[in-house]
Design goal:
Blueprint: H1 2-9, H2 26-29, H3 36-47, H4 50-55, H5 57-68, H6 77-89, H7 95-104, E1 107-109, E2 114-116, H8 123-136, H9 140-152, H10 163-180, E3 186-193, E4 196-203, E5 224-230, E6 252-259, E7 268-275
Antiparallel strand pairs: 1-2, 3-4, 3-5, 6-7
């Protein structure tokens, strides 16, 4: 509770929030982008706790007013995505207008089956906030296209490249699953490969439980999947392979040179890299 009090006390008279310490997440701070992302992030933290939202209602309303006034000037998809989620979380009337603009900035591919927001290294986080906004707007069917794109960005263990990507990404996928998953889950998944068979049974008690199978395959192998029953789940096939680098000619050169500095706890390096193209036999 003291942390929320501290946050509310740091609000600017205009309604925005600015970082008061060292800035590590510069995209969240916003810089010349009017601090929209950080302001929206703080609003989300306050709004997601009902008791806190009631106590700091004045700070929330002031922050929401600041964000809504920036609609015409927001061009950055990261700012727009997190601001849209904050407004929809507060059930503000401007939420729909922000969502329309956000949808207009999205990219649709794979014949309309995937939707995402390209935003440099923050594309996954931006897309996750987009999915959270779709869930609050009850656009569950449309949200499945965002879900498909997000699932493809995950690493093998289920996480995403960055910590913030993982936190927001898994939160968004979970929120959508809660809405579109039926009350009854009862289905089986059967895997067949090289004469071997493995079968998994999924019931309503297994929501959130990870079941997996590992099989070795060769270049010509086929993997058959059979799913039968009713319910909702996420099925992912991951193919991993190794490369023998002992007799492999590297196609790049990396050279490091240490520079002399007077600091005891500082390492300064000069890094030089070059690419060596592979020449064809012709």
């Amino acid at each position: 509770e003291q942390a929320f009090d501290w946050l509310a006390a740091r609000q600017h008279s205009t309604g925005r929030f600015d970082e008061v310490g060292p800035v590590f997440h510069r995209d969240m701070q916003g810089g010349l982008r009017q601090g929209i992302a950080l302001t929206s992030f703080v609003l989300i933290a306050l709004l997601e706790q009902p008791k806190v939202a009631t106590k700091h209602r004045a700070a929330i309303e002031k922050g929401i007013d600041y964000v809504t006034q920036t609609l015409g000037s927001i061009e950055d998809s990261y700012d727009l995505a997190i601001a849209t989620y904050a407004l929809l979380l507060q059930k503000h009337s401007s939420g729909e207008r922000f969502l329309e603009k956000l949808i207009g900035q999205s990219t649709v591919q794979q014949n309309g089956t995937e939707r995402f927001w390209a935003r440099d290294a923050h594309g996954i986080e931006t897309t996750a906030y987009g999915l959270l906004s779709f869930v609050l707007a009850e656009k569950y069917v449309d949200g499945t296209s965002i879900m498909r794109w997000l699932v493809k960005q995950r690493y093998t263990p289920g996480s995403f490249p960055r910590t913030q990507d993982t936190f927001v990404g898994l939160k968004a996928l979970t929120k959508l699953a809660e809405k579109i998953s039926p009350s009854r889950n009862d289905y089986s998944v059967q895997l067949r490969h090289a004469g071997r068979k493995e079968e998994f049974r999924v019931t309503s008690q297994d929501i959130g439980t990870l079941q997996h199978a590992q099989q070795g395959v060769d270049e010509t192998a086929q993997l058959e999947l059979h799913v039968a029953g009713i319910g909702f789940g996420l099925l992912q096939v991951v193919y991993e392979y190794g490369v023998d680098l002992r007799n492999f000619t590297a196609q790049f050169v990396l050279e490091l040179q240490k520079s002399v500095t007077n600091a005891n706890h500082q390492l300064q390096l000069e890094v030089c890299s070059s690419f060596t193209p592979q020449l064809s036999d012709g």
